[in-house]
Each structure stands twice: as C-alpha cells, then as structure tokens.
Amino acid sequence: MFELSILGCNALYPSNQINTSGYLLTVADTNILLDAGSGVFAELKKRVKPESVSAVFISHLHFDHISDLGVYNYYLEFLAKKGLFFGKIKLIVKKSESAVYQSIAGLNYFEIVNFDDETPILLDNLKLSFFKTVHPVETYGVTVCYNDKVFTYASDGNICDNLERAIKESDLTVCHAPFKYEERGENKPHPSALEVCKIAKKYGSKIVISHLFPDCDNSALKEECFAEYDNCIFAVQGEKYSI
Ligand SMILES: [Zn+2]
Ligand SMILES: [Zn+2]
Predict the structure, then answer these.
(1) How far apart are CA 95 and CA 158, in angstroms?
(2) Per-residue exposure over 116-148, b if at least 16 CB sit within 10 Å of its own CB, e if not
(3) Less Cβ crowding at N or C end of the chain, within 10 Å?
(4) What's this model's pTM, rounded to 2 decimal places?
(5) Of the bound ligands, which one is closest to the alpha carbon of residue 139?
(6) Helix (H, G, I), strand (E, B) or coil at 6
(7) What is the Å distance from ligand 1's center to 12 Cα?
(8) Rounded distance, CA 86 to CA 105, Å?
C-alpha cells in the first residue's frame, strides 16, 4: 500500500503555517521524501526519523522545492557528530550545470544519485521512473511502482503528453495546478486545476491537486473543479492519502 502524507502544499512561499512543496511517500518499509520546500523538514521529523529516509527526490531546483535540504543536512551532521548517524541519504536529482545544483551536490550527508528519463532506478522493492515536464527550469516528475500500484508525483509543469500519460497510468497523481481555468495559458509554468481534472476524469484516475498560491482565495478554483469532477482532491497539509 502507498501512503502519501502532505508535508507542504503551497506554491512560492510558506504562509499561515502552510509549507511549500514536500510529500512523504511510504511504501512497505521505504520512506521517500518528494521535494524539500520551506518548512518541510519539521513536518517530516514529526512523522519519521529523518535519518531513516531511504531517498529524497528533487523534481527541480526552484527554491520552493529545495530550501529545506540545507537544514536537513545540518540535522544529519549533528547526529553524525554524536555518533548517531552513519552514511548518507540518497538524493535523487537531475544533474545540472547550475550554481544551485553545485551547492546541493556539496551537501556532505547526501549521496547524489543522478537519473535520466530513460532508465528507472530501483530502490528497495520500488521502481522509480522519471519524465520531463514543461516548466521554466528543467523539471521531472517521478512515477513509483510497487506490486500492482502506481503513484506519480508530477510536480510543477504545464499540460503535456507526459503529464497526461502519467495521470492515465497512475492510481494516484499529485499535480501542481494552481491556476483557475481563465488564467490558463501555454506559456504558464503550471496548468489550471480544471485542465488536470478533465484529464483525470477522462481516465477515471485519482488526483490530488496541490501547490496553490498562498494568501489567495482559492474557493472559485475549487468550485470549478468539483463541478467537473467530484473525485478530485485538494491537498491539505497534514492529511494522508492511500492507494
Ligand atoms: Zn513550485
Ligand atoms: Zn517550479
């Protein structure tokens, strides 16, 4: 069984105790942290020992997805100096020439695992495969398969074939879709929530819509989605969803 805990679901910045992007995926004995936005480390630590996490997946190098990696590394260093942590945690991230990537690659208590979008990575009994999304910086979603269940974290990115395929083939997909339908556009960094609802409805798939803009009234956006597809879920920090 897959269990997904929402550790943060805001876009851009944390506000009113809602963190930016972070999700804990638990399958059998394996815990994977999906992105590490601002405030996510503290939520992770409430649920599991951060040193016991099998891997951290980073979808892309925007700060609302990576800003807690540095404090996570401090935590591991603190434990290591007390003799309570040995080794490193796998950090699954696309290789890049950017300065931000170089600073992440320099975190001592993480072991960088680079991926490409053709070769799956095996982690314990899970198969992780990666697909590119359409976003202003290079961004990847991850699909995790275990037994006959399929989960996708699509992260940031506008409508594209890869996103549609992921929703179609997954039992549960987390989509970052903060725009109202009237705000959608080809050049936007994200789709509208209604567009991803329409795709999920077409395939009868379960979706969690997340990464909404902070300090905004998102009620109209939610209403238009529920009118289209009452099976859609809006992420709530602290909630858990299972498949
Ligand atoms: Zn984002
Ligand atoms: Zn982004």
Answers:
(1) 22
(2) eeeebbebeebebbbbbbbbeeebbbbbbbbee
(3) N
(4) 0.97
(5) 2
(6) strand
(7) 6
(8) 18
Q: How far does CA 179 lie from the centroid of its chain?
A: 18
CB-count exposure of residue 112 (10 Å: 0-12, 13-18, 19+): middle
- Sheet containing strand 110-113, edge to edge, reads 110-113, 89-92, 55-57, 30-34, 22-27, 2-8, 240-242
N-terminal to C-terminal alpha carbon distance within the chain = 6
Instruction: Calculate how far, in angstroms, residue 72's C-alpha sits from the geometric centre of ligand 1.
Output: 19
pLDDT tens figures, 137-194: 999 999 999 999 999 999 999 999 999 999 999 999 999 999 999 999 999 999 999 9
Q: Tell how far the Cα of 86 is from the centroid of ligand 1, in angstroms.
A: 32
What is the C-alpha to C-alpha distance for residues 185 and 76, in angstroms, rounded to an integer?
Answer: 42
**Going by CATH, does the domain composed of 2-242 fall within 3.40.30.10?**
no
> Residue 145 and residue 28: Cα distance in Å, rounded?
12
Query: Does residue 117 surpass a pLDDT of 90?
Result: no
pLDDT band at 231 (very low <50, low <70, confident <90, very high): confident
Q: Which two tokens stand for residue 223?
A: 């209403």
Which residue type is seen at 149?
K
CA 234 / ligand 2 centre spacing (Å)? 19
Give the position of tokens 């269990």.
Answer: 3
CA of 142 to the centre of ligand 2 (A): 15
Residue 79 Cα to ligand 2 midpoint, Å, equals: 31
In the three-class reduction of DSSP (H, G, I as helix; E, B as strand; rest coil), residue 165 is classed as: helix
DSSP state of 7: E
Whether the Cβ atoms of residue 188 and residue 158 lie closer than 8 Å to each other: yes
**pLDDT value of position 234:** 97
Residues 24 and 35: their CA atoms lie apart, in Å, by: 9
Q: Which amino acid type is present at position 11?
A: A
